[in-house]
Amino acid sequence: MWRVMICDDEEEVRAAVRAQLERFSAETGERFSVREVHSGEALLAQFSADTDIVFLDIKMEGITGMDAARKLRTDGRDVCIIFITTMTQYAMEGYQVHAYGFLKKPLRYAQFRLQMLDAIRHLAPRREEAIPLRTGGEVWSISLAELIYLEVMDHDLRFVRTSAPLVCHATMSDMGEALRGKGFFRCHKSYTVSLRHVAWIGGASVRMSNGDELPVSKHRRREFLEAFAAYAGGGIL
């Protein structure tokens, strides 16, 4: 399931996007979880790191769509931004914030469908995967989209998720192969982080989407920055 936010100050435009998403879903079988907001302020306040696509109006009162997009990128948010606008002169500015595309008002389904097919192809590597985790005699299925980071705790690993954390008897090396190529990076001997959930990178630390600040080893920082840049640009490690 793809997580979508629609941000437009016109209710009829939000309804039109939702209707076209429903039509696209019926045609392709793709499933969407959709939230609607009416302002840039609401988008930034309610945005979550697991959001895949944002349909964003450029011209709104208060925080404009372009300003909201800049803030998302400044915070390191990895999301597919599709602008909805009558103002095609903003196209060049939009690409400066790595917008994935533009839809012109009034919306036309043929254009919408092509844009969505491209977006789904772009997002395909992050399609929800899960890994098995055995703990306390039970086997759990851990969604990689919900996994924020892993922490070494003596001879155990703590899996910090968007839901409750889990602890199991394992080593970071045990998880290396399971997480390879799935957007994770070991930034410190005690921490492996999901690049999708990185919110901010400082000189010697990284802040995750849940607010936790973790250390980044000095000798791994350059490789970490390169890995994050590749991931944010659409590549997967």
Spatial separation of the terminal alpha carbons = 22 Å
Major sheet details:
5 strands, parallel
Give the tally of β-strands.
15
Low-pLDDT windows of residues: none
Secondary structure: helix percent: 25-40%
Radius of gyration: 19 Å
Structural class category? alpha/beta
Q: Output the number of helix runs.
A: 7
Taking all residues together, what is the mean pLDDT? Answer: 87
Topology as a string of helices (H) and strands (E)? EHEHEHEHEHEEEEEHEEEEEH
Task: Give the neighbour order of strands across the main sheet.
Answer: 2-1-3-4-5
Sum up the overall morphology in one term.
globular
Question: Beta-sheet strand percentage?
Answer: 25-35%
Structure characterization notes:
The chain has 237 residues and is an alpha/beta fold. Helix content is 32%, strand content 32%. The chain is built from seven helices and 15 strands. It has helices at residues 11-28, 40-46, 65-74, 91-96, 109-123, 172-179, 221-232, and strands at 2-7, 32-37, 53-57, 80-85, 101-104, 130-135, 138-143, 147-153, 156-161, 166-168, 184-188, 191-194, 198-201, 205-208, 213-215. The strands form four sheets. A five-stranded parallel β-sheet has the order 2-1-3-4-5, sandwiched between helices. The chain has a five-stranded antiparallel β-sheet with strand order 10-9-8-12-11. Strands 13-14-15 form a three-stranded antiparallel β-sheet, with no helix packed on it. Strand 9 (156-161) and strand 10 (166-168) form a beta hairpin. Helix 2 packs parallel to helix 3 (65-74). The longest helix is centred in the first third of the chain and has 18 residues, at 11-28. The two termini are 22 Å apart. The model has no long low-confidence stretch (mean pLDDT 87).
